[in-house]
């Protein structure tokens, strides 16, 4: 079974890495950390080790088993470009995303310099793929806006910004070559406030630069009360998705075998189970 997601801008999550560490103000109330630490020490639970970084090679081939095309958020519980993840492991993740071309993968990072440096070198083979959307988090001017520049330097074919949690007015900035922007406020205990004027400014800039705009949520302590409409409507725009024929089961079996063959990180898997 794939892992269905309640995140508004994706269909499913795939976590070949678990755990992370904080790098900037957007991490302050990290939902992944909060979730993972609840299970620290629970024997047999996927987060038995809490939010400590851990590779999960037994999950690497999962998207090749999911026959229904999906938008897949890669590492919703981690950051693929965390300094503790070896280059070779990131390459293995990229190989799966390329092989599973009937899906659309959404890779989001705060480690934008490492992502850029790999996309112009070892991951060049993956940068041009239109079924992989490469994105950076932008929560403020100091930490977030430099990531936009790094993303532009990456050579990625499809580039997106996750402006969430938006913590201040970002002011005008160059959205040239950016395909998609997600905007949202922080939710949960201690949520920091979101000013509607910051959101309207971003919507205006997206309109002027032909960037698809997705408004995720206002957030707050009880986010469902605040909703996700902006000036009376929803904004649920996405980049155009690549449409690919889904291979039959035996072909997908062969794909799993082939990626297992080329990467030392792949572990033997059971027969495909479908969705
Ligand atoms: S980079 Fe993302 S997953 Fe990692 S601590 Fe920050 S918010 Fe959490």
**Ligands present:** iron/sulfur cluster
Tally of strands:
10
N-to-C CA distance: 5 Å
Q: How is the quaternary structure best described?
A: single chain
**Cα Rg:** 18 Å
For the sheet with most strands, the description reads: 8 strands, mixed
* Secondary structural class: alpha/beta
Helix content: 25-40%
Strand order of the largest sheet: 1-2-5-6-7-8-9-10
Beta-strand percentage range: 15-25%
Low-confidence stretches: 268-274
Mean pLDDT: 93
* Global morphology: globular
Count of runs of 4 or more consecutive helical residues: 9
Order of helix and strand elements from N to C terminus: EEEHEHEHEHHEHEEHEHH
Brief synopsis:
By secondary structure, the protein is an alpha/beta fold.
Plain-language structure description:
The protein is α/β, with parallel strands linked by helices and 275 residues long. 29% of the residues lie in helices and 15% in strands. It is built from nine helices and ten strands. It has helices at 31-37, 62-65, 87-99, 112-119, 124-127, 141-152, 196-209, 223-226, 249-262; strands spanning 3-4, 12-14, 17-18, 54-55, 71-74, 104-109, 132-137, 158-163, 180-184, 212-217. An eight-stranded mixed sheet has the order 1-2-5-6-7-8-9-10. Helix 4 (112-119) packs parallel to helix 6. The protein is globular and about 50 Å long. The N and C termini lie close together (5 Å). The structure holds iron/sulfur cluster. Residues 20, 22-23, 26-27, 30, 32-33, 78-79, 110 line the site of iron/sulfur cluster.
SSE map:
Layout: E1 3-4, E2 12-14, E3 17-18, H1 31-37, E4 54-55, H2 62-65, E5 71-74, H3 87-99, E6 104-109, H4 112-119, H5 124-127, E7 132-137, H6 141-152, E8 158-163, E9 180-184, H7 196-209, E10 212-217, H8 223-226, H9 249-262
Parallel strand pairs: 2-5, 5-6, 6-7, 7-8, 8-9, 9-10
Antiparallel strand pairs: 1-2, 3-4
Helix pairs in contact: 4-6
This protein binds iron/sulfur cluster.
Iron/sulfur cluster (SF4) is lined by residues 20, 22-23, 26-27, 30, 32-33, 78-79, 110.
């Amino acid at each position: 079974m794939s892992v269905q997601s309640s995140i508004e801008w994706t269909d499913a999550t795939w976590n070949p890495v678990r755990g992370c560490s904080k790098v900037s103000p957007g991490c302050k109330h990290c939902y992944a950390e909060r979730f993972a630490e609840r299970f620290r020490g629970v024997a047999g639970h996927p987060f038995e080790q809490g939010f400590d970084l851990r590779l999960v090679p037994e999950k690497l081939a999962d998207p090749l088993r999911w026959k229904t095309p999906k938008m897949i958020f890669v590492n919703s519980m981690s950051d693929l470009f965390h300094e503790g993840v070896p280059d070779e492991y990131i390459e293995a993740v990229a190989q799966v995303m390329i092989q599973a071309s009937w899906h659309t993968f959404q890779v989001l990072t705060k480690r934008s310099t490492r992502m850029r440096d790999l996309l112009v070198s070892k991951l060049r083979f993956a940068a041009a793929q239109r079924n992989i959307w490469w994105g950076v988090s932008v929560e403020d001017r100091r930490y977030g806006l430099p990531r936009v520049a790094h993303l532009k330097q990456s050579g990625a074919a499809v580039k997106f910004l996750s402006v969430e949690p938006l913590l201040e007015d970002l002011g005008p900035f160059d959205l040239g070559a950016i395909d998609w922007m997600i905007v949202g406020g922080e939710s949960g205990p201690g949520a920091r406030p979101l000013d509607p004027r910051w959101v309207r400014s971003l919507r205006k800039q997206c309109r002027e630069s032909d960037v698809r705009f997705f408004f995720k949520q206002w957030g707050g302590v009880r986010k469902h009360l605040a909703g996700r409409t902006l000036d009376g409507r929803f904004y649920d725009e996405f980049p155009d998705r690549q449409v690919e024929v889904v291979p039959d089961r035996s072909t997908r079996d062969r794909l799993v075998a082939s990626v297992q063959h080329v990467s030392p990180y792949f572990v033997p898997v059971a027969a495909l189970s479908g969705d």
